[in-house]
Amino acid sequence: MSVIGIAAFLAVLYLISYFMNWAHYEGDEAKINGFGWMTLEDSANGNSFASNIFALAGLLVIITLGWGVVKLLWSDSPEEGVRDILIAGGIAVAYALFAFMFKMAIGAFITDGKADQVEQCRKDAKSLGASSTVVRDLCGSYQTPFTDPQSGAGPVLCLLAGLVTLMLGAVLAVTAPQAREKLGSFGVTIPDAVPIVNLGGAFTSGDQLFAAATGSSSASEASGATMKVPAPDPRAVLGAVSEFWSWWGTMSGRVTGVVENDPTRAEGETMDTIALQISERVHAIHPRLEWSFGPGGDESRHRLTVSAAGIRTLQPTAARWYAAAPAADGTWSFRTLRPATIEPFICDGVSYDPAQMVYSSQNMRLGVELKIWDPRWKGSASAALGSLFRKPQGAQGSQGTPDSGQLRPSTVAAARLINRVLGEETAAGWVNEYKAVGSDPRDSRPARSLPNETGYYTGKYREAIASGGFADLNIPDPDKLPRVAHIRLPLASVIAPTCDVHVLIEAQPHGTDTVNAGFSPAEAAEKLFRSAESVVEKNGGKLVVYTTHQFRPEAHFYLDGASDSLDDVVNQIKSLAGSWKLGTAAVKVHSDAAWDQVGYFRWALGA
User: Fold this and answer.
1) What is the CATH number of domain 463-603?
2) What's the predicted TM-score (pTM) here?
3) 315 in helix, strand or coil?
4) Smallest Cα–Cα separation from 112: which of 13, 16, 44, 46?
5) CA–CA separation, 264 vs 266, rounded Å?
6) Please, what is the angle between helix 411-422 and helix 450-460, to 10°?
7) Number of other CB atoms surrounding residue 508 within 10 Å
8) Would you kindly state where each structural domain of the chain is located, as residue ranges?
9) What number of helices (H) and strands (E) belong to the chain?
10) pLDDT in tens, 408-417
């Protein structure tokens, strides 16, 4: 709820209460005294502490607070419960402060018949020469908001209730990881913890992780596919990538000796020393990248993978590492997107088995939104408060499992599950949003069924995906006007891995000019878009969406931000738009490694 919404509510309530005062008749049993505080006439003339009853605003706060508690305790979205508790506290505090500041302004105009009688009595008594004591005893007194200091009890109670509610919400927000994930909407950032990774142990042929760059402590990040890490400077990435491959060129023989347990070729290196050297160089590209050794399949005996680990803003970074990799030989091959597997995995020192995890899903237009749950994850208020007194999630007992008996939901573990079960390419292309929840979501299914969710889309758009062409979807614009969107699928950076600069052309065809030229407005705009596409594709970019619209057709391109020709390509597009004779066109350029600028086409409800 915005500040504007709260202010509007208070303003309406203020007017209602004012007119209730203005319309009341002398002798009424009850009245509202200007700000929603109900005053009973027969209770110490409305001045007692208890008589200032929390009326309309109190009811709103109580409802909001109660709904938040229900969500926190019994829903699969406890973070939304914490948010509602914080909103309730904020409303109460804002309401009280508003009352303190402005109560007197209207109160000065609110009196009743008794006040007029007292004033007339005083004038008459003074005209007869009566003393002040006699006047007071004879005429009595009346109270207004200016002379009634106890009438502030209601706002004081409201302020105290609001502060206590905010404190409760803050405690839950800091201690519950699923609440921490939502704090970005309040402008709050909680720093990540630093993971501790064991670099020891012998090499295995599976997808064993040796890097210190796990990025496994992102509890403060937004949930799911919206996990955001600032994208690095593309040109700086190229420098670090070049240094990595220069090192690899001199060390690959020793790395082979280590993984094949050949001391002669290893030349004194061990798995620990090699892991530290690789980690150092991968960190230099970006500290949140992950790397791993594994079998090379048909290409080679071994494979080195450097992955963005599902963080969309880092996918172009990992892609630049892969683009500079040498060709596969019989010994080593390379990749940046890990394939699907249902093997167990470890996250923050905790072992997870995909066979024990479940999910629920909601279909979006071009992808799914997922809720992930592990039976050990608890999201109740007691679990959140209890985390203050428990060891961190990574603490382990003798069996390698947390000794707390209860785990907090982990967004990173949910991400790892999705990326492993689907494979990173499929997850990046078709999972729009995900979050870890603290209770079994409604209509849950086994995690091994996740491929069925994305398979719906890959089956539905099989021809467009296979051809690399466009799928045509009827997608209304933000003003609900009809338009057709022509979209390359999947609408994610996996179809243009190093492209992280978004270029938008917004066209406005001139109806008369296009008709005279023998085109419809849509055809005229498409000619402009196709001309720009030919320039973009020659320089490694891609047209990913263009729309057919009567008034505002648009086209979305992505370019390689590290390309030496980037500025020249952008200038050519601007020149084409400026010289377009069938209407006017504007060009906008954004850095967009996560492809957020085209997210609208993916995320709207409805498959």
Assistant:
1) 3.30.70.100
2) 0.65
3) helix
4) 46
5) 6
6) 60
7) 16
8) 3-110+145-175, 224-335, 345-396+404-460, 463-603
9) 20, 18
10) 888 889 999 9
